Amino acid sequence: MPHLHVALVTERPELSLIPILQLRPQRIVLIPCQSSPQAAERLAILLRHELPSDTVVETHARLPTDEPYRCAKYADELAEVLYRQQFDTPSLAVTLDAGGCSTLTALLFQQAMGRCSADWLHVDIQAGALYRLACDGPDSAPEVMAIEPVLDVDRILQAYGRKRVRALSDSDEWRLECAQRKFLTRLLAHHADHLAVLLGELHDMVHGEGGVLDDPDPHAPPRLRPGAEHQQLHATPRFPATDALTALNEAGLLAWNSVSPRDITISSLQGALYLGGGWLTEYIWISAQEAGLSRVCSEAHILDLSGQHNGEPVVSDCLAVEGNQLLFIECLIARPGTKTCLEQGLKRLHGMLNHSAGLAATRVLLACGEFDKSRQRLTELQRLQGLQVQVIENGDLKHLPTLLASWKEHGTWPGG
């Protein structure tokens, strides 16, 4: 039976994508509703690539949702066109997905589309269910289908006008090295509350003024700064920092010994990248594997397809999709000092919201820094300012695999 599907595209385009990719209709009508015409065009391009070549995808003019009379007229005219097409193809089935549009708009379309016997679809991502209400059975219970995992990172990003250019986790070599350093990476993450000062100093040695890495060029590979391999800690390290330094030395990521405990040499690019924050990115990857997440991209470079804001491409420490929902994780390793830690953390919180604007995602910030327990913490700042970012600080990093597993199961971040 031929199937024609009408989708009202809102600012949540993934809601429109799910039933289309799951039901795979032969004809699709995309109508911008509470979104720009470009949003519908992006979906059309994506669908023409994902669906069979004989699938017909149409985009219509933007729905005037702020004018109910014109909106009703729009719906009536579309319903009339589809009604006439059913004379030519009596077996043509029509479905309508109002997405996340307003109640009034949905009711106007539901009333008008009754003329062509359109079944009503509703997507509930949290429940993992796709509901289909037959037009000729308003008193009967809707048909309930389990939502299939039809979305991945790239499909969601493209629906929102972005594109993943590359990711560290695309590399087999990176994943192998990540697995080989698993014990060391867990050691750092599980003791981040006691190692925060050391890890902040190592991060600063790599990225700070006169640091081991040359001034980063977003369009060029990272490289070592000539003559900057010799660095020095501000104070003589004590346990457990000495144990961490010994482990890092044994792994060949830096050179350190207890005879000159303040002297550190970072002479390899691999060591610089790991000490400069790579250990926390690797810890997310390891935790995601433990939690059973199936779609994970580490250090993903993201471009804006509109051509705006691409001077410095956004680099996300982790993007994951599970149950058609997006998880957006970033890391903060703050320089030593409680005031500096809060300043850098607040800047990172706001930065996450800026460069993930428009994305419907669970946003998480993993923070390793010198927090003053008697003063305001990042978690308190996040709640106080109403920032839609979950914050995991220092000692709680050890619980990341459990938190990710809970997000995978329930679709919401624990305590969020």
Based on CA atoms alone, the radius of gyration comes out at 26 Å
Please count the helical segments: 13
- Overall 3D form: elongated
**Strand order in space, largest sheet:** 3-2-1-4-5-6-7
Structural class: alpha/beta
Termini Cα gap: 44 Å
Helix and strand pattern: EHEHEHEHEEEHEHHHEHEHEEEHEHEH
In this structure, how is the largest beta sheet organized? 7 strands, mixed
Q: What portion of residues belong to β-strands? A: 15-25%
Low-confidence stretches: none
Q: Helical content, roughly?
A: 40-55%
Mean pLDDT: 88
* Total beta-strand segments: 15
Question: In terms of topology, how is this protein built?
Answer:
Elements (H helix, E strand, L loop, with lengths): L2 E7 L3 H11 L3 E6 L4 H14 L5 E4 L8 H21 L4 E5 L5 H11 L5 E6 L4 E5 L9 E4 L6 H7 L2 E6 L4 H9 L1 H9 L1 H16 L22 E3 L8 H10 L12 E3 L3 H23 L4 E9 L9 E9 L2 E9 L4 H18 L5 E8 L9 H7 L5 E4 L6 H11 L6
Parallel strand pairs: 1-2, 1-4, 2-3, 4-5, 13-14, 14-15
Antiparallel strand pairs: 5-6, 6-7, 8-11, 9-10, 11-12, 12-13
Helix pairs in contact: 3-4, 7-8, 7-10, 8-10, 10-13
Brief summary:
The protein is α/β, with parallel strands linked by helices and 416 residues long.
Provide a descriptive summary of the structure in words:
- The chain is α/β, with parallel strands linked by helices and 416 residues long.
- 40% of the residues lie in helices and 21% in strands.
- The chain has helices at 13-23, 37-50, 68-88, 103-113, 153-159, 172-180, 182-190, 192-207, 241-250, 269-291, 338-355, 378-384, 400-410; strands at residues 3-9, 27-32, 56-59, 93-97, 119-124, 129-133, 143-146, 162-167, 230-232, 263-265, 296-304, 314-322, 325-333, 361-368, 390-393.
- A hairpin with a 2-residue loop joins strand 12 (314-322) and strand 13.
- The two termini are 44 Å apart.
- The model has no long low-confidence stretch (mean pLDDT 88).
